[in-house]
Amino acid sequence: MEKNCIYLDNNATTKVDPEVVQVMLPYLADFYGNPSSMHTFGGQLSKAVKIAREQVAALLGADESEIVFTSCGTEGDNAAIRAALLAQPEKRHIITTQVEHPAVLNVCKQLETQGYSVTYLSVNHQGQLDLDELEASLTGNTALVTIMYANNETGVVFPIEQIGLRVKERGALFHVDAVQAVGKLPLNMKTSTIDMLTMSGHKIHAPKGIGALYVRRGVRFRPFLIGGHQERGRRAGTENVPSIVGLGKAAELELLHLETATTRETQLRDRLEQAMLANIPDCEVNGDPTQRLPNTTNIGFKYIEGEAILLSLNKYGICASSGSACTSGSLEPSHVLRAMGLPYTTLHGSIRFSLCRYTTDAEIEQVIAVMPDIVERLRALSPFKNDQAEWLQQQLIHR
Amino acid sequence: MWDYTDKVLDLFYNPKNQGVIEEPSEPGVQVATGEVGSIACGDALRLHLKIEVESDKILDARFQTFGCTSAIASSSALTEMIKGLTLDQALKVSNKDIADYLGGLPEAKMHCSVMGQEALEAAIYNYRGIPRTIHEEDEGTLICSCFGVSEPKIRRVIIENNLTSAEQVTNYVKAGGGCGSCLANIDDIIRDIQKESAKSQPISRQSKPLTNVQRIALIQKVLDEEVRPVLIADGGDVELFDVEGNIVKVILQGACGSCSSSTATLKIAIEARLRDRVSKNLVVEAVEL
Hints:
By secondary structure, chain A is of the alpha/beta class. Chain A has helices at residues 18-29, 40-43, 45-60, 73-87, 102-112, 131-137, 160-169, 241-279, 306-314, 325-328, 335-339, 344-347, 361-381, 390-398, and strands at residues 6-7, 67-70, 93-97, 117-121, 142-148, 173-177, 196-200, 211-215, 283-285, 296-301, 318-319, 321-322, 350-354. Chain A has 14 helices and 13 strands.
């Protein structure tokens, strides 16, 4: 197993913070009781769960009673969408975007087969929404608007509160998949228009298999997992106490580091981005340059293919990801980049670097050092060198 | 993460025979090029062959590839495999041979080996002046519109690799990997081929290779019994002129004989039938007297 690497794939998952590991260990070893038990040995764990709930609530600017622990972001999304529809059975319309995570997109597609109509809002070349399109799509029949806070592939941040105001005007529920935004942007549910918000543990240095759903007080919530009375009847199943405790600690650390990490990650990301643009011809940054997560950059290297770039980076122990067809597992390049209307020349050669608070200057310098040669080597192998390449011209005409 | 063999990784990190071949100044040597794929699909290969005219031998082979790790490795492997072969020998190289040379490819990456085989065929066809249009849809019914894959290509890959499911076909030629609406059609093609092969088992499963005389007789039989009735019904006909190695020379007659585009279509149809029934390496050439 490879242990040492330059990990720039933090939008995929993150390293569990050592402090998080430490607070979890006792609950994996000695304190194995069930928080629902009457005896002290089990019952004392409910205190640990309560503290974790407060820590997560603090990160979101929410009340402790508004936090429901889940198993992951996908569960949060599924539960929120289901709950919103069950709360307003007479309404049959959903609004989402073309660039959502599959945990929302595929749920919506399935709901279309069950009699719901779904509007998939488009995005422009920078990956931004058109608020007029949203406004035109909202009707009295709209039960739910479910839109991501920030995009996992490009880091583009949507104007969530402006969206929320319009949603509230039409009396729909507003769910936000904030899996990528939590810990990277300051959030305050007390002043927000958001009704439900999904977060995931493993994107904020907690382990995989734990997440949380914020449900605003007053929202009629029906559980997705039905069974016991846990989580105030909103999510049945014995609490995953070690991971909940870990998520609490991770949330506390995110809040503590939020400001400094944001500044640092922005600097490092910008340094990386500017060096790529300056040192490598024919590459461009995908996505809104200003409304973007501090840790993410998505760069399109024209005329070469993303998986070949990733494998070349892998040789230097650098971990990143790509939206190319060969990495998507579906033969089609990323639905996000396609929705943005990127040209084919860029689409297959897009690489996402996503940083975290552990990313060092030296790591970024290493990427800057190796990337130009990697791109040059693959371009030397490619039959397409520039937009004027004869074969490419032929193909663009035929399309 | 893809599970690549060491051979794939080696040819990706240290590819052999990349680049182009300049038009040669020496007499008796020609350069042929074959192009497959496109930047829209995510992989494309341009193969260059340096051919000694007299001996029909491939003196040198180079590639230019836009694509992933296994596309680059498959291209490089192909060039290594075909150097020194005659064109007829090279035409026998199948996508499976390329994958085997690499010690295997992940199932989802088999289409990279298919791209290599197709570029090779395209280059040789170009060199021999056999029409092979850029548009797949001209060669047969378009099955997968997302990736522009036609029926003959799907049939070929099913037969050569003994594929039994639409998902496998997607891995080999991408068909069905987009919107997925053609998966049912692919199921039908597979069922069709399975039926055909059950019928033709006595011919295609012969354990002993055919002698030349037997082979010519079989070609004649297939033409007489399976091809000519269809053509005659349409006002045309075909006559076997000669068989040289894997090249089957035929004379096309009647309604179709004069039009060059229909000749090309017909040639491919006859070739597909003969390959199916006699030998997969046959190439049909139309001759005019």
